Amino acid sequence: MSGDTTQHQNGHLERRGKGKRRAVMAVAHSFLVIAYHVLREKKPYEELGPDYFDRLDTERTQHYHVRCLEQLGFNVKLAPAHIA
Fold this sequence. Notes:
- This protein is mainly α.
- The protein contains 4 helices and no strands.
- It has helices at residues 6-18, 20-41, 52-56, 58-71.
- It is flat and about 50 Å long.
- The model has no long low-confidence stretch (mean pLDDT 81).
C-alpha cells in the first residue's frame, strides 16, 4: 500500500492508538466497503486521497489542530488566508 491512499492513512491512524491487529481489521473493512460500492454502483474505484476526511469536515479539523496546539501551551488565533 502506498502512502497516498485513504486506506494507508486510515491504517496509520488506527495503529497509533488501537494496536496493529485493529488497524489491519479497519483497513480490511474499508476494502470490503469499497468492493461493495464498486459492485453495487458498477463504477470503477476512485481513490479519494489521504486528506479526504480533512477536506470533508474542515471546521472539525481546524478545531482539532487548534486544541492540540493549545494543549502544547500555544495561544492560537485563526485568520482567513488571503489567496492571491
